[in-house]
Amino acid sequence: GSASANPTSATAGTEITLTATAKTGYEFKEWTTTPANLTIENNKFTMPDHAVTVKANFQKRNYSITVDNTITNGKLEAPATAQMGDTVTLTPTPAVGYKVASVTMNGTPLTANADGKYTFTMPAKDVTVSATFGKQTFNVTLNKGLSGNPTATYGDAYTGTIAPYYPGNEYTYDVTYTVGGSTEQKTATRKGANFT
To answer: Cα(171)–Cα(193) distance, rounded to whole angstroms?
Structure first.
């Protein structure tokens, strides 16, 4: 940043006004003086009977990171603040049966890292981050005598076919199926050729 004094030279007792201008991403912190016993209030001081040096000190500014509060079917973790130039890490966690569809910063899509996390470089402004989650699709393994779609979407009804089927006969059957590596079995009595 930069600083200026008005006037730049004066006799003892003259009021001096100081102005500090921060660069992008920084904010004014404090004034320091040489000699150090000079009192500055509201960016003003009274000129003593000797020369003084006044220095403006700046520090990096913290900007807010807001997580979108409308996220569903999962959550997104992010730090509350960051400074310009910082690498910010976002961690999306989908709910059971869901996967990460997208992660954005101020509406701009981010690319996933190898570890499944997302990063971006903090700009000199507040940002909002968000994530969307979509249903997972699993492979379906059917045992002998059953047929159906080889995939199924989480939460959706799945219908398969039992063979052989003899119309008009009501019977009880066991269906064993594997979805996404998890094997389940169901028993049902049905008058028909399908199971769901």
So the answer is: 10
DSSP string, 104-145: EETTEE-PBPTTS-EEEE--SS-EEEEEEEEE-EEEEEE-TT
* CB-CB contact of 115 with 95 (8 Å): no
Mean pLDDT for 71-78 is 97
Query: Of 141, 151, 147, whose CA–CA distance to 185 is shortest?
Result: 141
Pairing of strands 62-67, 127-135: parallel
The radius of gyration of the chain's CA atoms, rounded to the nearest angstrom, is 33
Give the list of residues 6+ apart from residue 13 with CB closer than 8 angstroms, or none. Answer: 46, 47
Per cent of the chain over pLDDT 70 is 81
Among 22-36, 45-59, 124-138, 174-188, the range scoring the smallest mean pLDDT is: 174-188
**3-class state of residue 189 by DSSP:** strand
Determine which helix (DSSP H) or strand (DSSP E) holds 148, and give its type and residue range: strand 146-148
Q: Which residue has the tokens 């660069």?
A: 23
Tell me what percent of the chain is helix, strand and coil, each rounded to the nearest 5.
0, 60, 40
CA gap 168, 181 in Å, rounded: 35
